[in-house]
């Protein structure tokens, strides 16, 4: 038994030190591409740390969104940055002249140190034997309609949090799209290897996404993990030159983007009118209602994450004519 | 029971040896192509041994099937990505290492 504890202690120490080292390297690295690769590695180690803390739901989300999709978004942004730089050089416009007003270097350091000190003070001043809410969650788990406590909290007890998260995701996409970058388009053929890989992987990813959505009711999984797997399938397709059929680019795409938020809001209005309480479901139908909400949220999350990589609204019929 | 424990222990250690060799190769080999060679061999065989070592301990056939699926997906992704990295390196004109 001693040996197992020692082994775990060693592993966790190495994990923590590795995380700190990767984070500092990612921040200090002057080469942006290398910094992104370090950030992705940081995300994967962080997912391992969540597994070590017995939080597989968070670990799944961190690996899929924090490491995978954020990494893809950062790489796409880097590619956009490089192409705009070369365009400026070709056009012969010199970089903006004039006195650069740079804030002093010590300022962010002081701000970050004070934030870190404040956080550390708060964490250290927590009562050592806090009970938390897990007993309350376990007590009312039977009425929630699902048996996975994480899903019960996210989709039932505090589903307004998830409602707001859906809206935040939508707002993020609107922000990115309204910046009006050029849409990511890959016209070259992806080549036989990548083509075959994507043809094999995309059906598997859709299957995995459906499985994660279904299994979320009683095991780690759920809308965000499932949606990010769906988003990864979309990213793969976009990177290999697939583009949305022009007829689907206008209304159907927008419907898919708002499906999650719209279903949540409809559910909120109905529960408010029926029971007088926001997003409080009758316990007999709770399981079904949660599955409907999660399905709509999964579609929206997947489509939104893929659309974020796209960078701007895809061209539709009107643009072509 | 004991026999199965020894079997999976031996398989896991053999897998770890492959991972160690692959990591050494990744750190010590001279160019991108030879590093890819070391990495993919280690990942494929090392992970395969790990998966078999865990699968003999699995509680059900579904659990063993999921482990096998992980290995197949990593094989698929790993070999394709190695091909893409090598192709990209050739396109950029990175020379093959010669002694």
Annotate the secondary structure layout.
The complex is a heterodimer of chains A (321) and B (99).
Chain A: H1 2-28, H2 32-52, H3 56-91, H4 106-124, H5 134-139, H6 149-157, H7 159-178, H8 192-215, H9 223-239, H10 251-274, H11 286-310, H12 317-320
Helix pairs in contact in A: 1-2, 2-3, 3-9, 6-7, 7-10, 7-11, 8-9, 9-11, 10-11
Chain B: H1 2-28, H2 32-55, H3 61-91
Helix pairs in contact in B: 1-2, 2-3
Sum up the structure in keywords.
heterodimer; A: 321 residues; mainly alpha; 12 helices; 72% helix; globular; B: 99 residues; 3 helices; 83% helix; 0% strand
Describe the protein in words.
The complex is a heterodimer of chains A (321) and B (99). With 321 residues, chain A is mainly alpha-helical. Helices cover 72% and strands 0% of the residues of chain A. Chain A has helices at residues 2-28, 32-52, 56-91, 106-124, 134-139, 149-157, 159-178, 192-215, 223-239, 251-274, 286-310, 317-320. The longest helix of chain A has 36 residues, at 56-91. The model of chain A has no long low-confidence stretch (mean pLDDT 84). Chain B is mainly α and 99 residues long. Chain B has one domain. Helix content of chain B is 83%, strand content 0%. Chain B has helices spanning 2-28, 32-55, 61-91. Chain B is elongated, with a radius of gyration of 16 Å. Chain A binds chain B through residues 191, 193-194, 196-197, 200-201, 204, and chain B through 73, 76-77, 80, 83-84, 87.
A few lines on this structure:
Chain A is mainly alpha-helical. Helices cover 72% and strands 0% of the residues of chain A.
Write down the secondary-structure element order of chain A.
HHHHHHHHHHHH
Flag low-confidence runs of chain A. none
Q: How helical, in percent, are the residues of chain A?
A: over 70%
- SS strand fraction of chain A: under 5%
Order of helices and strands of chain B: HHH
* Coarse morphology of chain B: elongated
User: How many H/I helical runs of chain A?
Assistant: 12
Main beta sheet strand tally, sense and closure of chain A? none
Oligomeric state: heterodimer
Structural class of chain B: mainly alpha
Low-confidence stretches of chain B: none
- Give the N-terminus to C-terminus distance of chain A in angstroms: 73 Å
Specify the structural class of chain A: mainly alpha
Number of helices of chain B: 3
Could you give the count of β-strands of chain B?
0
Strand content of chain B: under 5%
Number of strands of chain A: 0
Radius of gyration of chain B: 16 Å
Q: Give the termini distance of chain B in whole angstroms.
A: 51 Å
Sheet of most strands of chain B: none
What is the average per-residue confidence, as pLDDT of chain B, rounded to a whole number? 89
């Amino acid at each position: 038994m001693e040996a197992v504890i020692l082994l775990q202690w060693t592993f966790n120490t190495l994990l923590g030190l590795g995380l700190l080292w990767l984070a500092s390297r990612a921040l200090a690295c002057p080469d942006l591409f290398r910094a992104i690769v370090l950030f992705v590695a940081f995300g994967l180690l962080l997912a391992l740390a969540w597994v070590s803390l017995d939080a597989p739901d968070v670990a799944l989300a961190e690996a899929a969104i924090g490491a995978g999709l954020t990494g893809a978004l950062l790489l796409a942004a880097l590619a956009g940055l490089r192409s705009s730089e070369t365009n400026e050089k070709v056009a012969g416009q010199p970089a903006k002249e004039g006195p650069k007003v740079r804030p002093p270097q010590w300022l962010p350091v002081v701000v970050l140190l004070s934030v870190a000190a404040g956080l550390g003070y708060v964490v250290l001043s927590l009562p050592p034997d806090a009970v938390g809410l897990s007993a309350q969650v376990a007590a009312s788990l039977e009425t929630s309609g699902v048996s996975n406590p994480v899903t019960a909290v996210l989709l039932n007890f505090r589903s307004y949090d998830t409602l707001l998260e859906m809206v935040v995701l939508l707002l993020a996409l609107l922000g990115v799209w309204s910046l009006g970058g050029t849409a990511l388009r890959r016209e070259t053929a992806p080549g036989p290897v990548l083509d075959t890989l994507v043809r094999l992987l995309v059906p598997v990813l859709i299957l995995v996404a459906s499985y994660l959505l279904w299994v979320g009711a009683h095991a780690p999984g759920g809308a965000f993990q499932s949606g990010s797997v769906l988003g990864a399938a979309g990213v793969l397709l976009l990177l290999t030159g697939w583009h949305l059929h022009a007829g689907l680019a206008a209304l159907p795409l927008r419907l898919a983007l708002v499906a999650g938020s719209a279903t949540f809001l409809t559910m909120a209005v109905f529960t408010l009118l029926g029971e007088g309480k926001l997003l409080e479901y009758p316990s007999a139908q709770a399981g079904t209602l949660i599955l409907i909400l999660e399905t709509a949220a999964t579609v929206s999350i997947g489509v939104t994450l893929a659309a974020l990589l796209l960078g701007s609204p895809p061209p539709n019929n009107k643009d072509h004519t | 029971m004991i026999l199965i424990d020894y079997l999976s222990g031996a398989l896991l250690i053999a897998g770890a040896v492959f991972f160690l060799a692959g990591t050494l190769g990744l750190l010590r080999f001279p160019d991108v192509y030879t590093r890819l060679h070391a990495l993919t061999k280690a990942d494929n065989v090392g992970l395969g041994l790990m998966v078999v070592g865990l699968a003999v301990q699995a509680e059900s056939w579904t659990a063993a099937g999921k482990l096998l699926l992980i290995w197949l997906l990593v094989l698929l992704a790993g070999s394709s990505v190695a091909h893409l990295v090598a192709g990209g390196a050739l396109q950029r004109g990175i020379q093959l290492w010669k002694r």
